[in-house]
Amino acid sequence: MGKMxxxxxxxxxxxxxxxxxxxxxxxxxxxxxxxxxxxxxYVKYGTVVLISLYLVFGYGAQLICNVxxxxxxxxxxxxxxxxxxxxxxTRWLTYWxxxxxxxxCEFFSDLLLSWFPFYWLAKCVFLVxxxxxxxxxxxDLIYNRVIRPFFIKHEREIDSAMSKVHDKINELADxxxxxxxxxxxxx
Length: 187
Hints:
The chain is mainly alpha-helical. It has a domain at 8-57. Helix content is 80%, strand content 0%. It has 8 helices and no strands. The chain has helices at 2-10, 14-26, 40-57, 61-82, 87-113, 119-131, 138-153, 155-186. The protein is elongated, with a radius of gyration of 24 Å. The relative contact order is 0.06. This is Receptor expression-enhancing protein. Keywords: Membrane, Transmembrane, Transmembrane helix. The chain crosses the membrane at residues 48-72, 93-112, 118-138. One of its GO terms (cellular component) is membrane. Belongs to the DP1 family.
């Protein structure tokens, strides 16, 4: 039991790990100038510039872009689900609806667009704009001006199509269950 409690104490949150890493990095005497508050803007903007350059020229830019557009919003979504406020749930659901629409559109254009040198940087900037905690963020704007009006206008047709898809999926599941049951009987 004592070992289990020790292991639980060893588990750290992401922010604790990042704080530990930052303290460890900043304790290096060669980087002591970074500890000075006057240099923090250079560190912040320098990091943004380095990530931007890597998104343009680096190998694995797609992975970094997708991590930025997925990991942070997923973390915030989990935090929103665990909170009692409804506003943060709505905010992150809106982001995921826009993210899903973007992902479907990107599927058809990705092959062509990924050849452009600034594609991953532009995609990353777009995704960050969509989850920024400001009133003019992209997900609210796109949802309220594009997705919501389209959905309201075509809600009946969408519901009808979704009902047909649901019925077909149930039919396929029933058929698969029957085939599996028959296969088990014959073996």
